[in-house]
Design brief:
By secondary structure, the chain is of the alpha+beta class. It is 30% helix and 25% strand. Helix 1 runs parallel beside helix 5, helix 4 crosses helix 5 and helix 5 crosses helix 6.
Length: 391
């Protein structure tokens, strides 16, 4: 049975034969300023939603770990020591978190943990809830470049999809950021054609004192200088194992980052594409208990069947040798379910570990823009968002 999709005033009503009807609405917000002022506006405008997200997060922790979420949170912050790195590399973002807490009238640590998504997964060693699939396509022969990703998150985040526009300032380009209330970024693109997509690599070693992923993302899309960006991503102390696909004005770069090293991944495809899921391909700085994922092991010693590998092979088959990688080809890939048990596009299921929270395609051209869905891309139409005209 085909999906019935209705788009009315930005509200997406989705019906399928496999699940109950689901209504999702994209919240679109715009903020001025920087640092504490920006956070204060974020917290004030999304106060109700932030409170709801915190309650949903704590309920999810209790259900998954069977522990008091406040006890878990206290234990996490005994482990976490990210403040120094955040203040060193992204001091404005630390102030932004303070502003969000003040504006939403929430406890600072409750806001901070929302911005330590991957770092909390590392703390509980949760390998189930991250299944993102990302693609980078360089600009070639007059065609635009693209970044695209299915952002897969835990079920409790459904209904909290937000597109945040940060208006340009004298020292910051305008930015379009996928996120949820209280979170500074999941991924995004700026008006200069610089963007980033991310994939958790839980198997890589982490640091309890590095710079967390959300802060790395915002640092990237706050810049338009290629040399600065490549230097930053390769030299910052990373808190979590993560893959970063960077788009810089039509060029694409892929880096696997761990606590001790950053290794560039380049499949050397003739079409220049990169793509990634959730296991290391070139970085061997793996945790001892994940040694089977070490990409430098002999093939017969590596794991040969797991979710991330199935998705990687599905994306690679569609992307690696394609001579025409248009926006529509990327959307088709993001909607794909080549392996029904390990699909690139993940349907929301009430008892599932996670789902495709949003799907995004970012075009890097003279007039960059993004297209995104609210929820899985096979259930929703892509909506386009452009940057404002710089007068």
């Amino acid at each position: 049975m085909k999906l019935l999709i209705k788009l009315l005033l930005g509200i997406l009503v989705v019906t399928s034969c496999s699940q109950d009807p689901k209504t999702r609405e994209l919240k679109v917000v715009s903020f001025d300023g920087s640092g504490y002022e920006l956070g204060l506006k974020h917290g004030t405008e999304l106060k109700q939603e932030i409170g709801q997200v915190i309650l949903a997060w704590k309920k999810n922790v209790k259900n998954q770990l069977n522990k008091d979420p406040n006890v878990v949170l206290n234990g996490f912050f005994e482990y976490a020591n990210f403040d120094e790195s955040i203040k060193k590399w992204t001091p404005d973002l630390y102030e932004e978190i303070r502003g969000i807490a003040k504006g939403s009238q929430q406890n600072f640590n409750d806001i901070l943990v929302l911005n330590l998504l991957d770092e909390f997964w590392v703390y509980v060693d949760n390998e189930n809830n991250h299944h993102c699939s990302g693609i980078g396509v360089p600009s070639r022969d007059g065609s635009p470049g693209y970044l695209s990703q299915n952002m897969d998150l835990e079920n409790y985040t459904d209904g909290f999809q937000v597109l945040m526009r940060l208006n340009r300032t004298d020292d910051r380009p305008e930015q379009l950021i996928l996120t949820h209330p209280g979170l500074i970024a999941l991924n995004g693109l700026n008006e200069k054609g610089v963007g980033v997509c991310v994939n958790t690599i839980m198997q890589l070693k982490a640091s309890s004192s590095g710079l967390p992923v959300a802060f790395v993302v915002r640092r990237i899309i706050n810049s338009d200088n290629k040399e600065d960006l490549l230097n930053f991503i390769q030299n910052v102390n990373h808190a979590s194992g993560q893959n970063y696909i960077l788009g810089v004005k039509g060029e694409v770069f892929d880096f696997e980052a761990s606590a001790n090293k950053v290794v560039q991944y380049n499949p050397s495809n003739e079409n220049g594409t990169v793509y990634h899921t959730n296991h290391p391909l070139v970085n061997d700085d793996v945790k001892p208990w994940y040694k089977k994922y070490n990409p430098n092991l002999p093939k017969d010693s590596q794991l040969s069947k797991f979710n991330s590998l199935y998705r990687f092979e599905a994306v690679e088959k569609r992307i690696a040798n394609s001579t025409e990688l248009s926006e529509s080809a990327l959307i088709e890939t993001l909607r794909s379910k080549d392996d029904k048990n390990n699909p690139v596009c993940r349907t929301y299921r009430k008892k599932g570990y996670g789902f495709t929270f949003a799907s995004i395609v970012m075009e890097m051209s003279e007039r960059p823009y993004i297209k995104l869905t609210v929820g899985p891309p096979d259930e929703s139409d892509f909506q386009r968002f452009d940057f404002s005209v710089d007068e």
